[in-house]
Amino acid sequence: MSGQLKKDTLVFREVLFQGIAASAPAGAAVATLTGSAAFALGSLPLATVVAFVLVLMNAIVINRISEHVAGAGGYYEYSKQGFGIAVGSFVGWTYIIYQVFALAFIGLSIAVFVPALLSSVFNLNVPGWLWFPLLILTEGFGFLISYLGIKGSLRWATVMGTLEILVVVVIGLVIVLSHPSINTASVFTPQYAQGGISGVALGVLFAYTAFAGYGGATPLGEETKEAKRTVGRAVIFTSVILGLFFIFAAYAFTVGWGPSNMGSYANALVPGITLTLQDLGPVAAIVITVFYINSILTDAVVFTNSASRVIFSMGRDKVLPSRLSAVHDVHKTPHISAIVTVIAATAVAAISVPLLGGGGFNAFLFTGVVSTLGTLLVHMIVNAALPVIRRKRNLPMGILNIALAVITIAALMYVFYGTFISISTPVIVAAYLFAAWSIVGIIYILARRSRTIEVVQAPAV
């Protein structure tokens, strides 16, 4: 029996930080941008600027769709309203693998990186089995805070997200202001990139992934006041705040490390923390490490929020078993779908670590690639729905809307292609698994289609 989420409980600030926290700003700033630095090198800030422009264009598309559609299904709901229940179900199916593997990736970001960080940066000896309890604690923390209520979980995200951004900004300011001679605008040109423009282009691929989660507010449509206005605005503001933050962090860490030395930055484990230790000392390094961990833990909370609501919505529409649409009597959260999501993510991470070897780093790459492929495919289909949704509502499709859809889809296809630039066992396994999941999803949707609700409108908001 379907339950009811608590309506009109969230305001703009809380919805905003669902998206900001979903990008794990501190974690991405001190670690994730190394993927971009491997190609852009000292032109990392330029690659981050270009990635921000692409993200902002996607955010504008989401904003325009959310003016017409709001619900707990998020992207599933958007594509369903645009292309019908079959395509919507496929998007929801793809969103599930994206979210489950993203949660596994989040868990491994602590389980694998924290022991390695303690060993390599702080010279502490840690037992080899520590990754497993850290994984359980990370995923369990995300579930618990999410389960206890959406309002409380987003208060947590608001406070912690604000603090982690402030800590990174302060450290970045100390780096650039204490050594005025290192400041240069040349990092916003292609001159340092591997191969010039081509290196920047490849850097953009990986800088884009740092923004992953910027649309995390979309599944909060049923619980948000004035959702058709608030959710879209939150996605826009999320993109702008993250863009400015990542551009500043990329600049500060690039000039601090040295634009000509960024090859070693890309090979460092968590270079932002290493640089902080070198320039500001062990106390500052410990502080930023704590907020790196906090960033990942908060990420686990908000991803559990979003995944559970999309699965809840699909269960309510009978695309998935209706038991998944249950809502907790007291906390008004989709607890069954949250439990299933977290168990699946924990299992994926726990199995892939010993299976792929490499001390957990192969599992980290594997889960990251699968989640990236999932989010890119979801966004491509959702963006294509914008002009269709407008047409269905007897509104002009508009040249600008069509252009936004085409340009953003082309950019996402480029990022999708770029995922396979570095071919390795984890990438190959990820590609095969993603393809298999997609095929199984199509078969499942066709087999279950007669049971689904063919014409489903999101509850009034």
3D architecture notes:
- There is one protein chain.
- The chain is mostly helical and 461 residues long.
- It has one domain (12-451): Amino acid/polyamine transporter I.
- 72% of the residues lie in helices and 0% in strands.
- Helix 6 packs across helix 8 and helix 8 packs across helix 14 (282-316).
Question: What descriptive keywords fit this protein?
Answer:
461 residues, mainly alpha, Amino acid/polyamine transporter I, 18 helices, 0% strand, globular
Characterize this entry briefly.
The protein is an all-alpha fold. The protein is built from 18 helices and no strands.
Summarize the SSE layout with pairings.
Elements lengths: L11 H11 L2 H8 L1 H7 L3 H23 L8 H9 L1 H27 L1 H8 L10 H17 L2 H29 L18 H14 L16 H31 L4 H6 L3 H10 L1 H35 L18 H22 L4 H32 L6 H20 L6 H24 L13
Helix pairs in contact: 1-9, 1-11, 1-14, 2-9, 2-10, 2-11, 2-14, 3-4, 3-10, 4-10, 4-11, 4-16, 4-17, 5-6, 5-16, 6-8, 6-14, 6-15, 6-16, 6-18, 8-14, 8-15, 9-11, 9-14, 10-17, 13-14, 14-15, 15-16, 16-17, 16-18
